[in-house]
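pinging the channel bc i need a second pair of eyes. not urgent but kinda urgent?? the chain im working w is below, pasted from the shared doc
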Amino acid sequence: MTDHDALVRAVCEAPDDDTPRLVYADYLDDHGGHDRAAFVRAQVELARTPAWEPFAVLCRHRRPDWLTGDPFRHTLPPLPPGASVHWVSPPFRRGFGYRLGVRSATDWEEFGRPLFGKAPVAELHLWAAVPPGEWARHLRAVHLAANPVEPLRAVCAAPAVGLTDIHFHRADHPGMEFLVQDLLASPLRGAIHGLHFRTGYTDLEELLAALPGAALDRLTLANMGLTWSLLYDWCDHGGPERLTRLELSNNYGVSSEGVRVLAAGIRGRPGLLELGLSRCGVSDRGARALAGCDGLAGLRSLSLHDNPLSATAARALAHSPHLAGLRSLNLARCRLGDAAVRHLAKATFWPNLVELDLRGNPVSAVGAGCLLKAPVPPDLTALLLDPERLGPKAAGNLRRHFGGRVVLV
């Protein structure tokens, strides 16, 4: 066994320990692999960093190669073309192959299972069930990409002691609430901290009724046909009480009334760190409800992109004492103009901002002037704007004032 193989084996045998990975990066440096060594170290740092902090924002907008690992795909353990086992993009986490897809169980024994000894695989994207085995103890996340019944049963039957998140990408399967109930009655109940449902409109009321029994930190209900009345029932049963991350994007039926209901449901419980409400039909009234909610005092990331907001909404958000800790705010394509930017540049959260996305809004040189009068937040890493709306002179002035923090796309 070569030194390289021994180091890779050490990483696979201790997948949750960063030390073997950093030792491997040192080995790469000593053997001329400086770019890949930097990539491994960057991904280790990225895994430790919340999504709203400067290094994570830097990777998203200015070092996407550290996020995707595209220049290093050739370093992944190879799989034959056409095999039903494949690497899922982005395949890397903490510098090594992490995400594996299985379209059928045909090639699993030959190509899938052996990969657990060649890379610290911990996330499976399943279109089909695979036989349970000792390899499952390495899993941290499972994505059920099609019919979830058989793959989920296989997961529940495996010794998946480290599994924390399950993603249902087609949550419109009949009887989904019974699947969730069975999951929460399995030995995995105490381990699962994140459930993520996407694209499902059937039996949503029953599914929501099954969720309060789970001790969840993270919940996604995206494109699920969620309405404010369903949200009311869920909140009334304590649904959001323990959550640190809630993603509700692409539910136009939520509307501002649903945001008001949610704000009432988390009042006095400032545990939420991330909230996603993009494409939820949120208007100025919803923004005011968010601004007045003391349960958002711990919020660090708020996404409201693709909602019809006005300068009145921007003013409410900007003046909120409860949102002063915001680090990342996404207001892309919200129809916000120069008056809204004037409020944002004076916001309670402005000094703490790391990322502000204003792309797709009618912000002109006048709005740029408001930004130029504002002090540069010390941690600001990405201020995203549309250059064609600003004009070359305003864009140049912003670059001089904010330096590389301005991202004009």
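so The chain has a mean pLDDT of 94. and The longest strand covers residues 194-198. — does that match what u expected or am i reading it wrong
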